[in-house]
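Final report, results section. Input specification for complex C-07:
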Amino acid sequence: MYAFEFARPRTIAEAVKALKRDEALALGGGQTLIPTLKNRLASPSVLVSLTGIAEMKGVCRTDDGMVAVGGGTPHAVVAREARKLYPALAALAGGIGDPAVRSRGTIGGSLANNDPAACYPAAVLASGATIVTNRRKIPADKFFRGMFSTALAEGEIIIEVRFPVPRKASYQKFRQPASRFALTGVFVARFDDGVRVAVTGASEGGVYRWKEAEKALTAAFRPSAVEGLKVSPKGMIGDLHGTPEYRANLVRVLTARAVAAA
Amino acid sequence: MPKDHGIGAPMTRREDVRFLMGRGTYTDDVNVQGQAHAVFLRSQVAHGRIGKIDTRAAAKMPGVLAIFTGEDFKDVGGNPAGWFIGSRDGTPMREPKRPVLAHGKVRHVGDAYAAVVAETYAQARDAAEAIVADIRELPAVVDMAEAVRNPKNRVHDELPDNVCFDWGWIEDNRAKVDAAIRAAPHVTTLHLVNNRLIPNAMEPRASIGEYNPGTGDYRLTTTSQNPHLTRLLVAAFVLGIPEHKLTVVAPDVGGGFGSKIYHYGEEALVLAAARRLGRPVKWTAERSESFLADAHGRDHVTKIELACEKDGTFIAIRTETLANVGAYLSNFSTVTPTFLHGTLMAGNYRVPNVYVNVKTVFTNTAPVDAYRGAGRPEATFSIERVIDVAARELGIDPIEIRRRNFITPDMFPYTTPVGLQYDTGNYGATMDRLVEIADIAGFEQRRAESARKGLLRGLGVNCYIEACGIAPSNLVGALGARVGLYDAATVRVNATGNLSIMTGAHSHGQGHETAFAQVVAERLGIPESSIEIVHGDTSKIPFGMGSYGSRSLAVCGSAIVRATDKIIAKAKKIAAHMMEAAPEDVEFRDGKFSVVGTDKSVDWGAVCLKAYVPHNFPHESLEPGLEETAFYDPANFTYPAGAYACEVEVDPGTGKVTIASFAAADDFGNIVNPLIVEGQVHGGLAQGIGQALTEGAVYDSSGQLLTASYMDYAMPRADDLPFFRVDHSCRTPCTHNPLGVKGCGEAGAIGSPPAVVNAVIDALHRGGYTHVRHIDMPLSPVRVWSAMQR
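Structure output:
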């Protein structure tokens, strides 16, 4: 780790200001950034912690029936507080990493990093959630732009994520044996007007919607609806833990299991 | 009622109190007044020629005290291989020098070629980044078969090719074995890989070098499994320090599994730096350094053939193995794939013809050496896998084929065709016990239950035998060892009757402080609480060979028994003097000395006090004091053996394997502490299951380690493991050591991988995937699923 300054603003305005400094970096729960710093792979002048901002924390139901999660809310809090409001989301949060990761890592940090094997992007995309920043509201479909890439501009902070609550939903994750990130994870959300299916961990392009499955499941919401679908291994990630063909298989298998579990 | 103390009692480990309270003292916990910090520069390429190393800018950085490169050590000795192994054609093995810091070439990713010593760790790290090294990358030698085939790319330029030696065991039997296989009615051939593992001790390696310019004394505090051997290597072979001027201390050590047996260059560096600077120098490995630069384990590629009669009677076994030794010869790297492997290739079976061929190969990867089990897991895996495949081909039940070939109890001592003499055992009895504790009879019902959940259930069974208690010096000497393999203990009785036992064995998780105390307590009839076990400091303990090869209790424990017996003999003389009797009339029982046939007695405490307050001793015939040392060199290896059963569930959709149950029936001979034995077996099973299902070190074709962190190297975790059923009630005590013990530290890691793989293949066959003959470890979900696809 190289030396850096540390700022812990109390308000969004203070955070925005602090992030304007040269080579400033926003710090959520630090689950990716701190190891990066320890390996001397980044050298920010100042780290701006977003975990001391009260208005960015917690889970609540909004007046229009959505579930809003503050950008600085740790996974463990979502797992606890969203249990009744959005059980599938709470289950996803409760399955990220281990207790230490869940008590530090935040939803905002996870989404801003957009690791191709992260869990939250699947929930956000499948739910058709809205990412609220200090500048604007970004629909999920426009937020994720490929591995480690998002629509966020420099210095833009995720204040809150608003989830429409589906009638039924389930997230099925197959863990990479070493890291226990999602080797592939599928979030299926059934709304009154259709089904959305988002896949994480599988594609070289990061989280994506499996539209063919959405169509099939909107027509008939049962596991067999996807069992006959073909998933192309083209564009799937290939590494030590899974070939493209294997990940393509997992996409189909996990989608069917998510439908069964929803 | 189990005993509450002494031999056989399930006493909780006394050392756990300090470990669980965070009160252990590990090397990194030690901070010496005035210490500086060392950081190593490690090669980022697998193979490269070192040009100029420009240290000028770094030397001017704040806090920098010294910078070392390979040039600084070119005139000191190399770190030697502990065993000499000759090739089949009579030529000696090739022993390229292993320098303190790489010189001329870097030979693996992580090979240290420079070191910076600075006031603080951060300053040393900053300065290390300012060193500019011109390293011209060369083609990497990674794949063993390619390394043998193509001697043009060589890890060591001075050698003609990449082969360290080509070993045949037993070479004279080769023609006979070939003929037996040619004539056999059935031959099963299997190609398999014993996957490379990274030890991952919880505590990374660390070393502190100290030098006292006033006395010329050196001190090395280090993470070692055998401080005396480290002292011998670093002092006599590498740096040329007189042995008596170097103290090596291995304080609490957080696991070794073999990786901390060996002497490493970092230890020599901190000593040399301390000497140059006149102040202590400390280094603690980062976890990434542990991945890159600790000695790895296993890494064999084997072809095994098993010839049998149609009824499954074994006729012959023949193997051809390529064994990776990595870039340099680590201390035990030449014995691990040979005498710890080839000599076990008859397993638990009557198999009249066995021939083993091992080529050891240099590659541009980290050195490979003994890792929990060391050679014996490789042998067991090869034998027990090929037996399973043969059983399937011949239509014989896998338990039955093993029973038909067991060496039976009436045949001991049994001389195998690969040079060992098993002293005792009862393989049928351990198998009987296994069948019972694993509830083999209930398998079909459990399989049906799994099937209802959509899962494929399989049962895998195997046996193992190991040669432990390493080892008789005269035997290993004949086989090529350059050291003896005895151990030593000093028993010091204090005036107030309590004891300090100084042991050559080193405890880094094995529970010696508890078990050794039980041995002495039993012998002397006194409580364990009055016995202290001292280990790990060469200035306190007698010259011992350390802990590995499940040897501590069998070898050092026996030395403790011998020294304790000497104490009793001496104490009897003192008691005889006190009671005015002849020593031969004194008997010692339950902590009391009495004159046979009289009511005269004195107790332990009175005799101990008298030893140190010898007011009326006849000093010509009776020395004061009560302290004895014994060196024990065993007559043979010990031969723990057992039978293991694993049940797995395979998810056909994902290929994921879940261990549904695991049962282990072991014969460890006599048991000193069943609780510790059970813990050792659990740990071994976890490591063996880790090898079978999750662990595997992978280098890419350019020699980069792809599994260089826990993000990609999958250690087994608690939720990967079932509750184990272990049993060690089958006991055939070792016939040649005074405790009748065999050792239990490695069994779990040796015996479990084939059980897991056999179970997965069984599950797939029962599920209709009959085309799957073998899957190489680790049986990760993707490998199992891929194998299932036709």
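Chain A is about 30% helix and 20% strand. The mean pLDDT of chain A is 96. This concludes the modelling results for the funded period.
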